[in-house]
Write a structure and sequence with these properties.
8 strands; 26% helix; 6 helices; alpha+beta; single chain
Length: 210
């Protein structure tokens, strides 16, 4: 039953993204994946934040964790989410490695709770969603979220209003049993936000694409 509900939620998100992203008129870039026909030693340009990849993802910049390419989506996730509605410390303390935070939360929290309790959880949604041909999405750590913030005008479609809860974005970095770090995308303030708040978020993924 849990797997069925997860898949239904993922399908709903994918359908929403197809509707939202279809009007994008940006020229598709290959995001500089290796070209088999490319001559050895031929110059290969680096991607620029905001480039739309052939798979529909957006190049966000370099990961502060690995130094490799990091990607995000053209829009926020369709519904705001909580960090968690369970007040306990789970050890998601990495400021640079979102995947490590996700694993900490899964190890300490998700295995003990029902899907119904977790479906509005931003970390869980990113970890389980399948978008643009990829299933390795995650909620960015604080430093990874800063990459999105620094390139927000190139990536586009962020909420800049800054009027609570608008303009706030979750990171996967925990601050205390009660709170986690979020960022105000209007003025850039780092905020210790109660985990039970529903705010915006975007999933990211990374790989060595150049």
């Amino acid at each position: 039953m849990i797997n069925i509900m997860v898949n239904q939620y993922a399908i709903a998100i994918i359908v929403t993204f197809i509707v939202l992203c279809a009007p994008l008129g940006a020229a598709l870039a290959a995001c500089f994946e290796p070209d088999p026909a490319q001559a050895e030693g031929e110059y290969k340009p680096h991607p620029v934040p905001g480039d739309v990849c052939a798979d529909g993802t957006i190049y966000a910049g370099l990961s502060p964790d690995t130094g490799t390419a990091m990607y995000t989506t053209a829009m926020d996730m369709p519904e705001r989410g909580q960090w968690s509605d369970i007040v306990k410390e789970v050890g998601a303390s990495s400021s640079r490695q979102g995947t490590k935070n996700v694993q900490a939360v899964k190890d300490r929290l998700f295995s003990k709770q029902s899907y119904h309790r977790l479906k509005a959880n931003a970390i869980y949604v990113c970890d389980n969603v399948y978008m643009h041909g990829h299933g390795d999405w995650y909620l960015p750590a604080e430093a990874e979220l800063n990459v999105l913030f620094n390139n927000r005008y190139k990536i586009k479609n962020f909420n800049y209003t800054g009027e609570f809860p608008d303009g706030l974005y979750w990171s996967s970095t925990e601050e205390s049993p009660l709170s986690a770090f979020a960022k105000n995308f209007n003025i850039g303030y780092r905020i210790n936000l109660d985990k039970e708040n529903f705010v915006s978020y975007r999933c990211v993924r990374k790989d060595a694409s150049y």
